[in-house]
């Protein structure tokens, strides 16, 4: 994959990989309701890189999110600037908890159970969300404020699927 070019004026984005798709069907993970171009987020499970550019104090915010589950390992690294990259080369699908397993991925608790107890935003998470945190420490599982990273504005990045 070549460099990702961010259009002028774009401040936020959400990037994920689709697996085993032919664009005439949804594919295995990360599909877009049978469309090539997504008009929103891909369907779970999917590992995603998220960023917010040009934020206050000349900063950019980035994370690798597991809010929609996990489908493939991913790295999100700066290619310029003085900040740390995030990522994990570990495929956690084989260790996915039984109730979260999906064809080609591992669902998040909120996706499966759809209750406030599992869709928490209080930063505490549940025992099962700790599975994601322990497997992929740099990633953002549901309700974890400690895994959003910052870089100086103007930093360039590279997203690598299956590093």
UniProtKB/TrEMBL annotation:
InterPro entries: Osmotin/thaumatin-like_sf, Thaumatin. GO terms for biological process: defense response. Disulfide bonds join 32-38, 83-151, 96-106, 110-119. It comes from the Eukaryota. Gene3D superfamilies: Thaumatin. Keywords: Disulfide bond. PANTHER family: OS03G0233200 PROTEIN. This is Thaumatin-like protein.
């Amino acid at each position: 994959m070549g460099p990702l070019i961010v259009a002028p004026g774009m401040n936020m984005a959400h990037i994920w990989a689709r697996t085993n798709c032919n664009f005439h069907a949804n594919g295995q993970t990360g599909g877009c309701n049978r469309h090539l171009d997504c008009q929103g987020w891909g369907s779970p499970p999917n590992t995603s890189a998220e960023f917010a550019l040009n934020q206050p104090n000349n900063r950019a915010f980035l994370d690798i999110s597991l809010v929609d589950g996990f489908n493939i390992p991913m790295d999100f690294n700066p290619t310029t600037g003085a900040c740390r990259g995030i990522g994990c080369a570990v495929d956690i699908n084989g260790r996915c908890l039984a109730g979260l397993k999906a064809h080609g991925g591992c669902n998040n608790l909120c996706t499966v159970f759809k209750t406030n107890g599992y869709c928490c935003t209080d930063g505490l998470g549940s025992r099962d969300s700790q599975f994601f945190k322990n497997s992929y420490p740099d990633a953002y599982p549901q309700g974890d404020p400690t895994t959003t990273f910052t870089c100086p504005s103007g930093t360039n990045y590279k997203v690598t699927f299956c590093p």
